[in-house]
UniProtKB/TrEMBL annotation:
Keywords: ATP-binding, Glutamine amidotransferase, GMP biosynthesis, Ligase, Nucleotide-binding, Purine biosynthesis
Organism: Coccomyxa subellipsoidea (strain C-169)
Entry GO terms, CC: cytosol
GO molecular function term, any single one: GMP synthase activity
A Pfam family annotated for this UniProt entry: GATase
InterPro entries documented for this protein: Class_I_gatase-like, GATASE, GMP_synth_C, GMP_synth_GATase, GMP_synthase, GMPS_ATP_PPase_dom, NAD/GMP_synthase, Rossmann-like_a/b/a_fold
Protein name: GMP synthase [glutamine-hydrolyzing]
Function text: Catalyzes the conversion of xanthine monophosphate (XMP) to GMP in the presence of glutamine and ATP through an adenyl-XMP intermediate.
Annotated catalysed reactions: XMP + L-glutamine + ATP + H2O = GMP + L-glutamate + AMP + diphosphate + 2 H(+)
Residues given in the record as ATP binding sites: S226, G227, G228, V229, D230, S231, T232
Enzyme class, first EC level, given as a word: ligase
CDD domains given in the database record: GATase1_GMP_Synthase, GMP_synthase_C
Residues annotated as domain GMPS ATP-PPase: 198-397
Known EC number: 6.3.5.2
Length: 525
């Protein structure tokens, strides 16, 4: 096991994923963990993640007491990345200074300065890396060597080979770091000598075993199905273990796409044979959203309403069966980008949006969370769902992600105004069908339409119109954490624009969103 201690970087789970991609089982736990917990994992290698804090702030996360004695006695190599490197430097008596005006953010060139273990003894070799730091190491602890520096002279890679301690100021885990994976592999295989024997099948076996161990022989589990690949794969997996002790609920919150409820219910029942109850909550949800314009208020209201429905379903279940059920979880980008809920262990991330599936969970939630896919990325979930043991239909596996708050984050402002939701449904259906007609669906991570709360002047049939504007968005991405807009051919844009304006009366203008993430997010709200 390679243990990744999480100090709250946006990229922490990417580290865990990169380790797995290289065939090594990785486990991610919060950075303020106790030494006992670390010992219980018996790691063969430890990576300390980056994080938004400076080691100088009052409550900056620290390594547990006795950490260095433990790794020395057990011969465990440690790699600190960004904040993790600064933590190593500061904890061992070196000096870290805050860079007041001259931070290094984005793509940077670095150069190795001497033979090293991290770079397979290459000297004077340049590479581009992704850097994002406000602090830097200005004096190294005893026994450490600087083995690479940036163009500005910042020490960006350090090692103490005798103590098996290594540090990188940049992020080797992100795509933009040219030889980052090679450096991670040096740490895993040449330095730590961990075996590369992990594959996706292991997740299936391990998660099934965990469910067997957690859920007692008479316990029942309830699971909210969203119609997306994540909850579907999770439910299918749990269903394999628990059979009819799993009870799924699918909530029509009034914010779904065109014919979504009937389509997904058909797949659940007739293809996956999952036990699902559908609850129509449209009226209550739209009444609750009436007048709400602020994106976070909308997200919170939807999350809270979802929990209400779910809780009622659970209460009724308890009344009917006399048993208190348990609950299923979610995927990592949701956990990282949301306000950290109790029990997830995510303490140091900065909130970007409250993704409702986790951000809205109340403190007194009475369920135990079972989260079989908690640390997996979308493409890993897809690989899992494709395994013959789960056999989720390919059309379901390749579906684009759809956010929990649904079309509410795609009708900007008050979703209940006029017929915005219906217009958006029609536009979205035309857009997705056109993408399919052009054979592009599987090249795109996610495509959707957005209803804008503005009107524009147009001319249709010689008549002046003053009608709605819709924006189209399509992005490519590996994991939803970063994304690029999709470069459609003009022929496609021409066709889809004309199909929408001809097919949906109240729309007279179509625009295409050409913003990457960052600086935009994928959804508009
Ligand atoms: P953003 O807009 O944050 O979206 O760049 C990243 C990915 O997450 C999806 N998303 C959500 N998924 N609940 C979800 O299950 C949510 O509240 C939520 N908000 C955004 C989004 O569609 C994209 O795939």
């Amino acid at each position: 096991i390679c243990l990744v201690l999480d100090y709250g970087s946006q990229y922490t789970q990417l580290i865990a994923r990169r380790v797995r991609e290289n065939g090594v089982y990785s486990m991610l736990i919060p950075g303020d963990v106790t030494l006992e917990r670390i010992k219980s994992v018996q790691p063969k290698a430890i990576i300390l993640s980056g994080g938004p804090n400076s080691v100088h702030v009052a409550d900056a996360p620290q390594l547990p007491a006795g950490f260095f004695d433990y790794i020395k006695e057990n011969n465990i190599p440690v790699l600190g990345i960004c904040y993790g490197m600064q933590l190593l430097v500061q904890s061992l008596g070196g000096e870290v200074q805050t860079v007041e005006t001259d931070g290094e953010y984005g793509r940077m060139s670095i150069r190795t300065t001497q033979a090293s273990e991290l770079y397979s003894d290459e000297t004077d070799h340049a590479q581009m890396v992704w850097m994002s730091h406000g602090d830097k190491a200005t004096r190294l602890p005893d026994g450490f060597q600087a083995v690479a520096t940036s163009e500005k002279g910042t020490v960006v890679a350090i090692e103490n080979t005798a103590a098996q301690l290594y540090g990188l100021q940049y992020h080797p885990e992100v795509q933009h770091s040219e030889r980052g994976i090679a450096t991670l592999r040096r740490f895993l295989f040449d330095i730590s000598k961990v075996p590369a024997d992990w594959k996706i099948e292991n997740v299936l076996e391990e998660e099934m075993a965990k469910i067997r161990a957690t859920v007692g022989p008479t316990d029942h589990v309830i699971c909210a199905l969203s119609g997306g690949v994540d909850s579907t794969v999770a439910a299918t997996l749990v269903h394999q273990v628990l059979g009819d002790r799993l009870h799924c609920v699918f909530v029509d919150n009034g914010l779904l796409r065109y014919k979504e409820a009937e389509r997904v219910m058909d797949t659940f029942k007739n293809h996956l044979h999952l036990p699902v109850t559908m609850i129509d909550h449209t009226e209550v949800m739209l009444a609750r959203l009436k007048g709400l314009k602020d994106p976070e208020e909308k997200r919170k209201a939807i999350g809270a309403e979802f929990i209400n429905v779910f809780q009622t379903f659970a209460d009724n279940f308890e009344k009917d069966h006399g048993i208190c059920p348990k609950y299923l979880g979610t995927l990592y980008p949701d956990v990282i980008e949301s306000c950290p809920p109790p029990g997830t262990g995510q303490k140091h991330s900065h909130m970007i949006k409250s993704h409702h599936n986790v951000g809205g969970l109340p403190k007194d939630l009475k369920f135990t969370l079972i989260e079989p896919l908690r640390e997996l990325f979308k493409d890993e979930v897809r690989a899992l769902g494709r395994l013959p043991a789960l056999n989720v239909p390919e059309a379901f596996i390749t579906r684009h992600p759809f956010p929990g708050p649904g079309l509410a984050v795609r009708v900007l402002g008050d979703v209940t105004e006029g017929d915005a939701l219906d217009v958006l449904r029609q536009v979205d259906e035309i857009y997705i069908n056109t993408i399919r007609d052009f054979g592009l669906y599987d090249n795109i991570w996610q495509a959707f339409a957005v209803f804008l709360p503005v009107r524009s002047v147009g001319v249709q049939g010689d008549q002046r119109t003053h009608s709605s504007v819709v924006a189209l968005r399509a992005v490519t991405s590996g994991d939803g954490m970063t994304a690029d807009w999709y470069p459609f051919e003009p022929k496609f844009l021409q066709t889809v624009s004309s199909r929408i304006c001809n097919g949906v009366r109240s729309v007279n203008r179509v625009v295409y969103d050409i913003t990457s993430k960052p600086p935009g997010t994928i959804e508009w709200e």
